[in-house]
Every structure is written in structure tokens, then in C-alpha cells.
Design brief:
Blueprint: H1 2-19, E1 21-23, E2 27-35, E3 38-44, E4 48-52, E5 62-68, H2 77-83, E6 96-108, E7 111-120, E8 123-134, E9 137-145, E10 158-168
Length: 169
């Protein structure tokens, strides 16, 4: 009888360990875009959010996060200040980028894909985001079109496709 109770307790503890909601404690977000045919990029910090992720119960799992656009860093302070202006991110009006999962699916092994609503400058788009989940960490990369979010206007030199890389715990 004691063994059965211990086994049930262990099962409950291990099940809730995977499905607990936790705050994002450590995250890295970087981006790359071509400008004059050369890849350039930077980082965005100030990531906050919550993760309620259970690989065995994806229908009830949820991932939400925001990033503080004021933290944009391209290793060029003049460019950073320009990117904060209204023709790019307009941080005075839209200080955060947000994402919220709509659905999550397992691809195999530690690989998953999710559909996320991503909001930049008040415009929300549904984006497919492939990611891996191992050792309580998420890692992935996806692409967006900057014009979908009214970032940067028309440009003969700047590419439209932006690659976003992320890691979160």
C-alpha cells in the first residue's frame, strides 16, 4: 500500500513539474536583416513572459512574452536611436513587441512548431515558429517580413525578410 501511495505521489509531482506555469527568467533575442546585401543585426532585451508548457498536453500549453524595443542594440548608437523613431519601431507609441501562442504541435523528438500572434507597432500577424525544447529551455528561429509590420518603409537597400533567433528559459 505504501508503494502504491508513493508511486501515485511521484506521478503527480512529475506531471505537475512539466505543466507548471513559470516566468521567463533568461532570454536572448537577436535579429538579422540584409542591408546593401550584407547581413546586419542586433539584439532586443527586456524579455518578460510566462510559459505553461507541457509536451504531453500541448492543447492546454501557452507561451506569452514581450520584449522591450527600447533595448534594441545593433552596436551602433546612432542606428539604434534611428530604429526607435516612428518610421521604424516608434517606441514612444509602441514600446514592446509581443507574442502569444495560438497552437502548439510536436514535430518529433524535442522539436515543436507553434502558431503565434506577433504584434509589432500595433499590427498583429499569425506566424509559424519552429522551436526545440530541451532541459527546460526553448530555442528557435523564424522569419518575418518587416513590411507586414510597417517597419522601415520602402528601401532599395534594405531587405524585407528579417530572421529572428531566440533562446528562453
Amino acid at each position: 500500500m505504501k508503494n502504491i501511495i508513493a508511486a501515485i505521489a511521484l506521478l503527480i509531482i512529475s506531471t505537475t513539474a512539466f505543466s507548471q506555469t513559470k516566468n521567463i527568467s533568461n532570454a536572448k533575442v537577436s535579429f538579422e536583416i540584409k542591408n546593401l546585401g550584407i547581413k546586419t543585426g542586433g539584439t532586443i532585451g527586456g524579455v518578460q513572459g510566462t510559459i505553461a508548457f507541457d509536451p504531453a498536453a500541448l492543447a492546454t500549453s501557452k507561451i506569452e512574452a514581450t520584449a522591450d524595443v527600447n533595448t534594441i542594440n545593433t552596436d551602433n548608437s546612432m542606428r539604434d536611436e534611428h530604429l526607435k523613431k516612428d518610421d521604424y519601431f516608434d517606441v514612444a507609441k509602441y514600446p514592446a513587441i509581443s507574442l502569444s501562442s495560438v497552437s502548439l504541435k510536436k514535430k518529433g523528438g524535442n522539436n515543436f512548431t507553434g502558431q503565434f500572434n506577433i504584434t509589432i507597432k500595433g499590427k498583429t500577424k499569425l506566424v509559424d515558429v519552429p522551436f526545440s525544447y530541451a532541459d527546460n529551455a526553448f530555442k528557435g528561429s523564424f522569419k518575418i517580413n518587416r513590411k507586414d509590420f510597417a517597419i522601415g518603409g520602402s528601401s532599395m537597400t534594405m531587405g524585407d525578410e528579417v530572421t529572428i533567433n531566440f533562446e528562453a528559459k
